[in-house]
Amino acid sequence: MNAPEKLKQYDRDAQVVGNIVHLEHFNVVINDQRLATLFYVVGLGGTRDPYLFPGLENMWVNFGRTQVHLPSRGSKPEVVRGTVGFVVPSLEDLKKRLEFAEKEMKRVVPEKETKFSWCEKDGAIEATCPWGNRVRCHAPSPQFGRTELGMVYVDFDVPPGTAEGIARFYNEVMKAPAKATKKRASVSVGRNQALHFTETSKEIPEYDNHHVQVYVADFGSPYHWLKERGLINMETDAEEWRFQWITDPKDGRKLFQIEHEVRSMKHRLFARPLVNRNHAITNLTYMPNSDAFRGLF
């Protein structure tokens, strides 16, 4: 009788994604769609969603399977207290687009009236939107799995002494793998995304109601924990609820305020196909059947 063949061993834990399965969008209020178009569409290379909010009340801009939501309401724009990370197909193409967007922005409004800027730093492109939102764009790399276009992280600036408690919150309450090292909490999201919370001694601006949106597999357990402690701030509908305060489950201390729009995987918009244009083509370089971006999201 032959000896049983030895089975190859794999690291099965490396495939665990945790309870937060997707970081879909961040949402900030704007007051000028012209500038938003120049930055997020012309500059960064996103695609304005052609189906939802095509008017003047809101803009949804697609980046792979992720979005930026830019509602136009009020006169005071909102700013994420941190840095949003994207992967783009080509940093060289991105630099050319940002140079063009910069020229157009100066033509539209006086330079002193926007906070727009960009530079190349540590192998990435860092840019600031006209209202002060910071983004960092990376080339595709194994660090971000197979993603060639999309939002891959948000890195929040948080007060000193909060990283460990924030990691506990995501581990114990949101059921998402999280760890705190070197004054930074990192939370695993889905296949290749993350939420980071980096401690800083710099003054953190007052919270202005911007938010991030996530889909979760276990929709009930985190809700009940937060509800029992009076931390649910919006009961949207059967498929969505929201909370704003990240609290330490060890002692209930409030650590950082950022609204989470939490949706179930039964939500009507979960896994909605998003239109993404091939921003490498122009009317002069057009080739048949090359309109859509054909890389990996």
Biggest sheet, spatial arrangement of strands: 2-3-4-1-13-16-15-14
Q: What kind of sheet is the major sheet?
A: 8 strands, mixed
Second rung of CATH, namely the architecture of the domain at 20-213: Roll
CATH superfamily (homologous) name of the domain at 20-213:
2,3-Dihydroxybiphenyl 1,2-Dioxygenase, domain 1
Give the total of beta strands.
16
Low-confidence stretches: none
CATH topology of the domain at 20-213: 2,3-Dihydroxybiphenyl 1,2-Dioxygenase, domain 1
CATH class of the domain at 20-213: Alpha Beta
SS field, number of helical segments: 4
| Rg measurement, Å | 20 Å
Order of helices and strands: EHEEEEHEEEEHEEEEHEEE
Secondary structure elements and pairings:
Layout: E1 20-27, H1 33-43, E2 47-48, E3 60-63, E4 66-69, E5 82-87, H2 91-108, E6 117-121, E7 124-128, E8 134-138, E9 150-158, H3 163-172, E10 178-181, E11 184-189, E12 193-199, E13 211-216, H4 221-228, E14 232-237, E15 240-247, E16 254-264
Describe the 3D structure.
By secondary structure, the chain is of the alpha+beta class. It has a domain at 20-213: Roll (2,3-Dihydroxybiphenyl 1,2-Dioxygenase, domain 1), CATH 3.10.180. The protein has four helices and 16 strands. It has helices spanning 33-43, 91-108, 163-172, 221-228, and strands at residues 20-27, 47-48, 60-63, 66-69, 82-87, 117-121, 124-128, 134-138, 150-158, 178-181, 184-189, 193-199, 211-216, 232-237, 240-247, 254-264. The strands form two sheets. It has an eight-stranded mixed sheet. An eight-stranded mixed sheet has the order 6-7-8-5-9-12-11-10, covered by helices on one side. Helix 1 runs antiparallel to helix 2. The longest helix has 18 residues, at 91-108. The mean pLDDT is 95.
